[in-house]
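Here is one chain, start to finish.
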Amino acid sequence: MTNKILKSIGVQGWVRIILVVAMFVAGFVLYPYLPAMVPTHWGFEGEPNAWSPKVWGAWIIPLMSLAFLIFFPILPKLDPKRENYEHFKKSWGVIQTSLVGFMAYMYAVTMYVTFYPQYNSYVGQAVVFGIGVLFILMGNVMGKVRQNYFVGLRTPWTLSDPEVWQKSQRFAGWMFVLAGLAFIIESIVWIAILPVFIVFMFVMVVLPMAYSYMLSRK
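Its structure:
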């Protein structure tokens, strides 16, 4: 029975568990040394513009990540198209691991600049780099996601036609990868971040929606 449970968790499942446990361990180790107020938000200039008491700042990201671990296995059971999850099980695992990995990365960045505030000016670049990697990882598996109500590009046109869904997910995946590469490059050159962010959010969100509509019209 125990072996069956361990096997059902899978390699990626264990990676997610280890990441969340590592965040909590880091929180317990670092907590006594944290300042009373922990930075929790930074402006585009890289300077912190919001702080929280350390009892909140130390635990919010680990707790959110733990909530992901609990909620992810429940999500398919709530989906009317739950049977489709078996057809993109590996891709669904990559999406889950990518999100938890991003949370761990953000936690590491937050804790680092809390202790070394002289590096606050690099936070924006670090965050944009992490977002870029996240988008590339998710974009690479979006084309394999089957119809469901929680994951992928969900529009009236993709949900009503499996063929429109599949073609739209592939297109959206390419847009995610393109945006991810742009964000990684932007994190290095760090020029005109706001226009770049707006343009590529448009590329990721609006273009795939428009594409799914045009497919449905055909």
